[in-house]
Amino acid sequence: MSKTKVICFANNKGGSGKSTTCANVGYALSLMGKRVLLVDGDMQLNLSLSYFEEDRVLDMAKSEKNLYRAIQKQEDLEGYIIPTAYENVDLIPSSTLMSSIEYELFTKWQREFILRKCLERVKASGKYDFILLDSPPTLGGWVMNILCASDYVLIPVEASPWGLFGLANLFEFMDQVKQISPTLQTLGIAVTKADERKNYFKQTLETLGELENVHLFSQYIRVDSSIEWSQDRSQPVLAYKGASRSAKEYYALAKEILDYVSR
């Protein structure tokens, strides 16, 4: 793969599994020999916590080397990259100060493209096969920045009665973004927190399968306590317990994603 692919994980509904999916798809791709840069764009720091202990994450959040500071200064992101404990996986951490990023962006020139510009050199360098961006559960100027910096959008959707709530708003928002960033593509929807015993799981799959021009990944992620335990250990589930059901499912999902973007 010669060109760096930038994929953002977006859904304006909280609890959809964005950070967990981003963290584990990234690690799975690294196991396939792909070089991955993870970018934590959410003030909740969950992507950073997937790879580093809480004390280290909080230290990075308070430092001058996190995504908030880079956006604030409009600096090249190369100097903000932190190696993780895993081969082929690096991270740009977030900060709790990301809560004020909308205000930071408001007065900036071409504010929708600041993240894209900050990523330009990293993307052009070819150092990474994939750059994965985790976004907050909102629709606004910062998420627009993330979408404008991306080649693809992957939408994790929780298989629950409220899992589809707000999805129409997200699609409308993405249509607006495509007017200023027409190369943005919808990679597809990945179903998370699935419980095959529940009727609404089947209803979720049926509803999503009926959407026009939106790819639905065949591999869904079922509820698995191994995910929670891996998060408690600040590890991707594939590193924590590679033989677990969820680890195998995330690996299979990452393989689908890789096949899809390599067509």
Keywords:
263 residues, Rossmann fold, 12 helices, single chain, alpha/beta
- What best-fitting shape do the alpha-carbon axes yield? globular
Tell me what the CATH architecture is: 3-Layer(aba) Sandwich
Please identify the structural class as seen in this structure.
Answer: alpha/beta
Total of helices: 12
Biggest sheet descriptor? 7 strands, mixed
Q: Care to describe what's here?
A:
The protein has a single domain (5-261), classed as P-loop containing nucleotide triphosphate hydrolases (Rossmann fold). The protein has twelve helices and seven strands. It has helices at residues 18-31, 46-49, 54-62, 67-73, 101-106, 114-125, 141-148, 167-180, 199-209, 225-232, 237-240, 245-261; strands at residues 5-9, 36-40, 82-83, 89-92, 130-134, 152-158, 185-192. Strands 3-4-2-5-1-6-7 form a seven-stranded mixed β-sheet, sandwiched between helices. α1 packs across α12 (245-261). The longest helix has 17 residues, at 245-261. The mean pLDDT is 94.
